[in-house]
Amino acid sequence: MIQLKPKYFKISAGLIWEVVSIGIPTAVIQICLAAAASLTNIAAKTLPDSDLIIAAYGVVQRLVLIGCYVIMGFMQGYQPVASYAFGAKNRERFRQSARFALQGSLVLTVAVAIFYIVLAKPLILLFNRNPLVVDYGKWLLISQVALYPAFGLCYMMTITFQTIGSPRMGLFLSLIRQCLFYVPFILILPGMLGVKGIYFSQPAADILTIIVCVLLFNTMKRSISKNMGNDM
Known about the structure:
Elements: H1 13-45, H2 50-87, H3 91-118, H4 120-125, H5 131-145, H6 149-163, H7 167-193, H8 195-228
């Protein structure tokens, strides 16, 4: 029988940081999503039909968050499997889990994007019957998910960097989409292009996110190879 004795429990700053650092990137993503929504509402206030645009954006945010939570849930299932394989130095298991997570995240985000784009108008109509709100909402929803796989790719890489002991890189990736890239676009484009500036802000941020993720993908593979002695 195993006996637990308090004298054997030791708390260290390093251990606390290891535990906390695992959850920081996910928390940062949530904060960035909330901040991006607030800034979008602020940007919309300066435009004609601001009340209608804000009403439409509120509906769109609810729909988009559902898609985000689906991906986040999928990735939360991937993380413990990958972490166990990485800790056990099981190269094949880690490689399989990482590939499955990458493929699964891309398939899910593409499926969500297609679903929202095809059914954009009917979905907005479920929440609001005002024709102008429906029109704004339709285009806002389409623009938000047009390059939605960027979110899946970025989040998968964020979780993987956390798993292999690179929380700083994971934190960086958790910031880029909705903070480092989206914020400048949403602050600048609506003043130049009106409501189209809001439409273009998320796709523009997603394009840059994809570029950065592609550039960092080999870095991630090298880190895995260094720690596990084999390529992904």
